């Protein structure tokens, strides 16, 4: 996944909704229902889905007058790529830099540090 495959916020919201759904493929109406809190209109969602299809994140299949969508990129795959870019860009790949920044901002608790230590030791963590 290359840099140009980073999703803008609105497209990411659509993908997150799609990833949360269980039975694929899904219709745009099902996605509208899942995204009800966004108060988007159907044309907005359809445009976002079209962009996601062009970029290779979703596949669309037309049956009659209805399009069905399914993700082509998994949530874990996308999060791993984004996390790697973030880690490299902001911390130069330095784990101590990342952890120090999180601790300074109080974004990480002692419990989080203990779980991180467990993960680094080869345990499962959470």
UniProtKB/TrEMBL annotation:
GO molecular-function terms, A-Z: DNA binding
InterPro entries (alphabetical): BlaI_family, WH-like_DNA-bd_sf, WH_DNA-bd_sf
Keywords in alphabetical order: DNA-binding, Transcription, Transcription regulation
Lineage: superkingdom: Bacteria
GO biological process, one term: negative regulation of DNA-templated transcription
Family: Belongs to the BlaI transcriptional regulatory family.
Protein's name in the database: BlaI/MecI/CopY family transcriptional regulator
Annotated organism of origin: Candidatus Flavonifractor merdigallinarum
The organism's taxonomic lineage, starting at the top: Bacteria, Bacillati, Bacillota, Clostridia, Eubacteriales
